[in-house]
Amino acid sequence: MPPAIRWSSLLSRLIASPKLPPKSRGHKSPSEIQFLWSSSTIIMEESQSLRSLFVSAKDEKTVLESRGDTHTATYRDAVNAAIAKFQECQRQVSLLSLFSSNESLEDVSTGDIQYMSLEYHLAELSQRGPTTDREAVLRRALDQYERFLTRLDEYELLSAGDKKLFEQYMANPSTFTLAPMNDAAARRDVKVRRFREEKEMKQKLEYLTRNEGRLQSDDDDTRRLYLAELQLYIHQTFQALDLLMQELSMLSAVRNAPVPVQPPTDDPRQRSNLGGVNYSDRLDPSLSQLLNGGRNGPLLNSKGKPMQPFTLLDRRTQLQQGVFRSGHNLPTMTIDEYLEEEHRRGNVLQGGEQSGMQPEIDEDDLEKADQETMKARAWDEYVEANPKGSGNTLNRG
Fold first, then answer.
1. How far apart are CA 136 and CA 123, in angstroms?
2. Are residues 228 and 120 in the same domain?
3. For 139, how many CA atoms within 13 A lie in the half-sphere containing its CB?
4. Residue 110: closest CA among 183, 193, 217
5. Which terminus of the chain is more solvent-facing, meaning fewer CB atoms within 10 Å of its CB: N or C?
6. How far is the C-alpha of 278 from the C-alpha of 276, rounded, in Å?
7. Which residue ranges are recorded for the region named Disordered (predicted)?
8. Domain tally for the chain?
9. For residues 1 and 333, what is the distance between their CA atoms, to the nearest angstrom?
10. DSSP conformation class of 344
């Protein structure tokens, strides 16, 4: 059903148009009447075209919200196509002068209320665009959100709480937040409260859209549906503003962060070139290290000064020494020599066997014998009173 045309305001604008001859406003000539009829016909055709274009753009936006290929070229093309349709809707709305700051909500026809959400849809879609310059994308989204809230504020569609949030945002957008960032409990309470409010709004919107036949015949129900939809968009706009300002602050912090200076490492693994070019995880030194006496590094510096002691040997002698060597280190002492060295260093515990031996009981020590006898009798009595398996018969615990 095409939206209703406000004939009184339309005729007043056409009569006041400079294209009309400057005649009396009370009586119209046949040429003026023909001009008015043709102009109203054009506006009705443009309004019908606007409605179909707006419905098509919203359908494309709904499809984009359910797609998962957000990083593909086809997805970006679809986003750009939907943005182009909404921008064309904006152009037609401006051409038809559907909204004015001098009007009230009662002056707006029911079919035109839905076009108040154009800036909201553009802000949502602009965030799905290319991410090469993320900050510029966020700035464009913020601009569309501001225009959306400004228009609804002019028509007094913002509640007292939303109007207070909007004034807080316009006073200082960079510090806008729904709850203090350093108060986790407050942010959680605000998040839970707004989630419940959004759930109630969606349930109300679902209830209003349940009977499509009634919406097509009852103008009041359609008007309530569009207004409920705008209230949901307002609620989601403030949540988006909170998130966008957080992301912008993080991008600004990253952009202004100083270049980190690599501190000198104290890790001995890095100082010893672990994992480097000449690194090896072998426990035994390589053949070249054995030939060099276990030393690494250059023998001479750039000026020819010796860096470590070395022995001048010809290449033939080095190769001869390494021909019949084993691939691992050979033992340099026997086991007995090793134990003697450990004894000398004091690494072997003394008296271990003597401390573990129990002394034999002297038979002449009657008192000690009586104690052992009484201990044995007590144990026998305990075993008789508590036979094996008589404890946890129910297998509990």
1. 12
2. yes
3. 6
4. 217
5. C
6. 6
7. 259-282, 350-397
8. 2
9. 104
10. H
Mean pLDDT of residues grouped by 10 in the chain (397 residues)?
42 39 44 46 57 91 84 88 92 89 87 91 87 85 92 91 91 87 87 91 86 69 89 93 90 79 61 57 60 62 79 77 78 91 85 63 77 91 85 67
User: 115 and 74, same structural domain?
Assistant: no
Strand, coil or helix: 244 = helix
pLDDT at 334: 93
Domain assignment of residue 141, given as a range? 100-254
Angle between helices 7-15 and 30-65 (to 10 degrees): 120
Residue 344 in tokens? 């000398």
Question: Could you give the C-alpha distances from 229 to 4, 101, 123, 224, 257, in angstroms and in order?
Answer: 19, 21, 16, 9, 42
Instruction: Supply the pLDDT for residue 13.
Output: 42
Burial (0-12, 13-18, 19+ Cβ within 10 Å), 230: buried
Q: What torsion, rounded to 10 degrees, do the Cα atoms 78, 84, 88, 94 define?
A: 130
Both structure tokens of 63: 């499809």
DSSP label at residue 115: G
pTM: 0.55
Q: Are 214 and 109 members of one domain? A: yes
How far apart, in whole angstroms, are the C-alpha atoms of residue 15 and residue 236?
41
Shared-domain flag, residues 107 and 24: no
Residues composing the chain: 397
The token pair at 309 is 């002691």
